[in-house]
Design goal:
- About 15% of the residues lie in helices and about 35% in strands.
- The protein is mainly β.
- Bound molecules: zinc ion (2 copies).
- The site of one zinc ion (ZN) has 7 residues, from helix 2.
Length: about 140
């Protein structure tokens, strides 16, 4: 079975998801397990941890899960298969969990972000401030 859906993602710890995530999944039965493979693409909007500028990042998640329908949410709400209720997959929940687990630890506007000056608070990416010159 193929699932192709746009799933809105709930905001999380100051991060927002302006567009619904694009979810493309293939569901297969293997033995007694439900095998879920596919991809999730989302855009995350947040603040650079260092300079506080707005950051937009695209997020690509490869999904590869083996879920056990006999341990779904109805049996074990906190188990690995908690996106299942019986044999039914909660695509929105799976997308939410997958996207959150793929988020970078600290969002940075760029690899070389120089952050804010600890003295005057100026954004060092846009130029040197005077206190940096006197300090070094
Ligand atoms: Zn930055
Ligand atoms: Zn400064």
């Amino acid at each position: 079975m193929l699932v192709s859906d746009d799933v809105p993602i709930e905001p999380f710890e100051g991060l927002a998801f302006p567009n619904p995530a694009r979810v493309e999944l293939e569901l297969r039965q293997a033995d007694r397990m439900l095998v879920v493979t596919g991809t999730i693409d989302a855009r995350v909007h947040g603040q650079c941890d260092a300079c506080l500028e707005g950051v937009d990042r695209s997020l690509h998640v490869d999904v590869s899960e083996r879920l056990d329908p006999s341990h779904g949410r109805d049996v074990d709400p906190f188990g690995e298969s908690n996106v299942l209720t019986g044999e039914r997959l909660d695509v929105a929940d799976l997308a939410q969990q997958s996207v959150l687990s793929a988020l970078p630890m600290g969002l940075r506007c760029s690899e070389g972000c120089r952050g804010l000056c600890p003295l005057c608070g100026a954004n060092r990416n846009t130029g040197e401030c005077t206190c940096e010159r006197t300090a070094s």
